[in-house]
Amino acid sequence: METKKRNNSIDLFRYICAVLVVIIHTEPFYHGDLSGVGIFLKEFLARVAVPFFFAVSGYFLFQKIDRDPKAPFRSAWRLTKVYLLWSVPYLLIDGWVLKDNLLEFLKRTVLGIFLNGTYSHFWFFPGLIYATLIGGLIYRFLGWKPLVGLAMALYAIGVLGSTYPIPYLSDAFASEYFTPIYRIAMTAIPFVVLGGWVARRGCDAVVSYRHNQSYDWWILSGVGAAFVLEKCILIWTGLPIIHPNTWMLLPLTAVILTLLLKHPLERHTTLAAHARTCANFTYYIHMAFILIVGRGFVKVFGVPLDGFGMFIVTVAVLTAIGALLHHVKWIRKWLN
User: Fold this and answer.
1) Long-range pairs of 165-169 with CB within 8 A, sequence gap ≥ 24
2) What is the biggest distance separating any 2 CA atoms in the chain, rounded to whole angstroms?
3) CA-to-CA distance for 32 and 211, rounded, in angstroms?
4) Burial (CB count within 10 angstroms: exposed 0-12, middle 13-18, buried 19+), residue 57
5) 16 burial via Cβ count (<10 Å: 0-12, 13-18, 19+)
6) At 327, is the secondary structure helix, strand, or coil?
7) pLDDT tens digits for 132-183?
8) How would you class 98 by CB atoms within 10 Å of its CB: exposed for 0-12, middle for 13-18, buried for 19 or more?
9) pTM for the complete prediction?
10) CB-CB contact of 38 with 299 (8 Å)
11) Quick check: 204 and 278 in contact, CB under 8 A?
């Protein structure tokens, strides 16, 4: 595999995914219950965001490993530094809001750093760090086929145990202690490996007819429709879904990544570079922003800011700040 230059489409879509994550946490169309638009945004579109982040990371990781055997360690160490840096605001907020004793704070912090994430959305970092190390090492010592087999088996177990609750298996998945295992083994590893599969097989692995672009969108529409249908069936049947992964989420993520690689939007390099910085900044800091603005709004106006208002303010302010930070080289280094 040859290392490729950055793909503008991926960076632009990364920003869209960051906005979708904000939708999950602000519920802009929530009015006592999620409306049809709210359900579609939160439970359908937004569920692609974090798997896409994992897949993109795997796409770049597995391009490096053949050239550099230490690539998993280098990537994991870089991720760890970024993770710890952006965890500082959340650790300060955690200590300020909960105001419990030092021992409890330290215990929660250690578990957060190594397993759960230092804040709710930061579970992504431990998941990606472990997936980078585990996936990279299995690939180096056992090869590609055992890694793919393991990843697909883990994903299948995760779907069967959480989305389609099987007796006994689903009981384990419902435990809060099992959540970090699910996130690392059954979400992060499969999607990181998926990104590597797309990198190894190339753009033609999923969409093979380059001469007919309409075929690309038929593929996306078909897989997307199957994903929506599966989610609708799950909602209509009222199954007690523990985690949001579904069978069709994996191929949908593969198709989206492949189409973005096929259509790199080469003329939009400057916009894509800004979008990448804004995406990362928005993802890293949005939960702190939501908490601070939410408490400040109540203190000033005496009523909470509704979900739609919080969504608009969060995306607008963090995008503007991210665009400014993009021009500060030493800060951009810790964002990208």
Assistant:
1) 165/239, 165/240, 165/241, 165/242
2) 64
3) 49
4) buried
5) middle
6) coil
7) 999 999 999 999 999 999 999 999 999 988 888 777 777 778 787 889 999 9
8) exposed
9) 0.93
10) no
11) no
